[in-house]
Each structure stands twice: as C-alpha cells, then as structure tokens.
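1st attempt posting a full record on here, be nice pls
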Amino acid sequence: MFSLSSSHQFHLYKSACDMRKSFDSLCGLVQNELNQVAHNGSVYIFINRRGNQMKLLHWEPGGFVLYHKRLEQGTFALPIHNKTQISWSDLVLMIEGIQVLKSSHKRRFTMK
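the predicted structure (as tokens):
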C-alpha cells in the first residue's frame, strides 16, 4: 500500500540514477552523496537519465519500501528550484506530470 503523506520529508537526488540499483545501492547513494541516513524515515527520490523512470526509497518499521514508476510516454518534470529537499505537493505534481511554470505566492500573516 502507498503509505506516503505530507508528514514525510522528501529528498531529491539531483544526478541521474541507474534504475538497475536496488535497496542497498540506493542506500549507498543516500549515505555517500546526500550525507543522510537512509533509515531516518525520509523519502529519497531518484530519477534516471532519460527522465522517464522514478524510484522512491522509504524506510518503514520493519524494512525498506521501494516504489518504482516508469512512464510509457513523456518525462518527469523536476521542480524549478534547485533544492534537494522538496515538498509533498512538488512530488505529487512530478508524479502526475504537472509542471508549474509561473506562480505567485500571496503574502500571508505569520507569527514570528
């Protein structure tokens, strides 16, 4: 069952990833390239060079879960910002194939 939600942290691996990699190899990328601990509960996102495949690595109690999606047509649109940490909404937009080209953020009251 797909058990990801907005309560998780999402980290995008910015380089192209070989989709033949599985649990252990992806954990190695998380540790060596992203300087993170793979079993901290975050979700790690990997995309291949052609941009038509995506893998999500996630630690759940009891073990790792690996989600893999391959597009039959088109590519995944990466978020415009250059951050490695992305939001749940950015991930959903990527998976659904929606690219936001221009948006404006309305000013809101915030407590400081």
